[in-house]
Amino acid sequence: MHAHPQAATVIAQTRQWIEQLVLGHNLCPFAHKPYQLGLIRFSVTPASKPDTLLAVLKAELHALQAVPADKVETTLLIHPETLTNFHTYNDFLDDADELLYQEGLEGILQIASFHPQYQFSGTELDDAENYTNRSPYPMLHLLREESLEKAIAQHPNIDAIPERNIQVMQQLGVTTLKRILQGKAL
Fold first, then answer.
1. pLDDT tens string for the chain (186 positions)?
2. CB of 87 within 8 A of CB of 156?
3. Which parts of 103-144 fold into alpha helices (H)?
4. Domain ranges of the chain
5. How far is CA 166 from the centre of its chain?
6. In what order do the strands lie in the sheet with 40-44?
7. Is 0.85 topped by the overall pTM?
8. How far apart, in whole angstroms, are the C-alpha atoms of residue 162 and residue 11?
């Protein structure tokens, strides 16, 4: 599989989003350490079809599992050319979870979802809370279950994170959040 021709730009925009929103507003208290230590693998695929993306996902899952967490903690599989429609992307997540199961990786790795059009059930498209899972490009975040369990055990109030994040999104407002996703300086 060839590299995405705009991989450097895609990664730079993704890093900016992570720094400004995810870390800058502490949406994920577990992200600071792996980001600062350079333990996040950014993989940009030129896959243009869901079947191709599924094959790339399979390879990325096994690559993550094969490397110790102190070398690569987590992977962001960014796929700008496929599943750009959120509903199609959301349907694909069932295939991704099925792949985890088929590969015997359920309970070892998990997949979190981020998309430019992310919309939680029961929300309006422009509700600020959707931005907790909106990203500059469609992406699949591959996480190690063991690392998550350790981080959760060390967090004083894990259940408060989602509600706090919704409040942060509402305080920032949709206009500011759109600017962050577009990579525009605040």
1. 567 889 999 999 999 999 999 999 999 988 999 999 999 999 999 999 999 999 999 999 999 999 999 999 999 999 999 999 999 999 999 999 999 999 999 999 999 999 999 999 999 999 999 999 999 999 999 999 998 888 888 877 888 899 999 999 999 999 999 999 988 765
2. no
3. none
4. 7-181
5. 17
6. 40-44, 74-78, 139-144, 109-114
7. yes
8. 26
